[in-house]
Amino acid sequence: MKALSQQRRHPLAVLALMVLALLLSGGLYAVATTTNEAKAQTQTYTAQDIEEGEKLFIANCSTCHGLEGTGTPSGPSLVGVGAAAVDFQVGTGRMPMQANGPQAEKKPVQFSEEEIQQMAGYVATLGPGPALPEEQYLDVAEGNAANGAKVFLANCAMCHNAAGAGGALTRGKYAPSLMDVSEKHIYEAMQTGPQNMPVFNDANITPEEKRDVITYLKTLEQSPQVGGFGLGSLGPVSEGLFVWTVGLVVIIGFTVWLTSRSA
Questions:
Q1: 61: annotated binding-site residue?
Q2: Among 63, 181, 232, 256, fewest CB within 10 Å belongs to which?
Q3: Residue 40 pLDDT > 90, yes or no?
Q4: Is residue 196 within 8 Å of 103, Cβ to Cβ?
Q5: Where's the Cytochrome c domain (predicted)?
Q6: What is the pLDDT of residue 1?
C-alpha cells in the first residue's frame, strides 16, 4: 500500500499539465494567426512590386530606418507597422523627412502612387501590421455622420477640435487640421496612430465607426459658415481675441477722435 501511495501523482500535477497544454495551444494559435496576417499583407503585392519597393526603401529610407527596416538611432523600426503606415506617411509627404523636428510636416508628395504602393508592399513583408483599408469602409455615402460625430467627439476632439480644425499640443507639436484630407488617409491615421496620435485599432473603433467618423468630417467640409467668418473654427479663443482686438482698436480710435474734437 505504501508503494502504491508513493506512485500516486501529486494533486497539482494535473493542474500543471492543463496549464502547459493551454500555453502550448495558445502559442501555436498565435503563430498561425501571425502567419496568416503576414500572408494577407503580401497577397495584394507581386514579387516584382516587393522587389522594386525594397530598392526604393534602401535608396530613400534606410538611412534612418536601417537597411532591413529594424530602425536606427535616427529612426524607429518599421517591422510590424504594415502597409497602411507607409501609405499614410509617404502618401501625405511626411516621409521622407526634410529635417528632424517635433513631428513630420505635411509637404508635397515625392513619389508616384505606384512607388508608394511598392514601398508599402515591401514594408508589409517585414512583419504583420495594418493593411490598406478596404474600399467599403471609405464610402462616405454608407456612413452615419451622427454616429461619427459621437465617436469623434469622444476620441478625437480634445486634440483636433470639435470641428476638425486641429490644435496646438506641447513642445512644438500639434494636431493637424482634418479638412481636405482624403478618406483613405483619415482611416489609415486612425489605424496606425502617426506622430503623437494614439492607435485606434478595430477593437477600439470598429471599421464601420471609422467610416462614420470620415463621413462626419466630410460633412463638416461641406457645411457652410452660417455665422459668417469662421475664424478657423478654433472656438472661443480665436473669437475672443478677434473681438478684443477689434474692440480695442475702436476704443482707441474713438478716444483719439474725442481728443481732437476737444482741441
A1: yes
A2: 256
A3: no
A4: yes
A5: 48-221
A6: 47
* Residue 257: Cβ within 10 Å count: 10
CA distance 115 to 118: 5
- CA angle 169–172–175, rounded 5-degree value: 40
Q: Is the Cβ–Cβ distance between 189 and 205 less than 8 Å?
A: no
The model's pTM:
0.72
Q: How many CB atoms lie within 10 A of CB 130?
A: 25
Confidence grade of residue 244 (pLDDT, cut at 50, 70, 90):
confident
Cis omega (within 30 of 0) on the bond before 96? yes
Q: Quick one: cell of 76?
A: 524607429
CB < 8 Å & 24+ apart, contacts of 249-252 = none
Is 58 flagged in the annotation as binding? no
Phi and psi (nearest 5°) for 174? Answer: -155, 160
Whether residue 251 is annotated as binding a ligand: the answer is: no
Cell numbers 506617411: residue: 89
pLDDT for 27 beyond 70: no
Does the annotation place 185 within a ligand binding site?
Answer: no
Q: Which three cell numbers stand for residue 137?
A: 469602409
- Residue 203, C-alpha cell as written in the block: 477593437
User: 17-21, 183-187, 240-244 — which is least confidently predicted?
Assistant: 17-21
CA distance linking residue 257 with residue 245, whole number of Å: 18
Question: Amino acid identity of 95?
Answer: M
Q: Find out whether 77 and 69 touch, Cβ atoms under 8 Å.
A: yes
* 165 contacts 238 by C-beta, under 8 angstroms: no
- DSSP state at residue 68: T
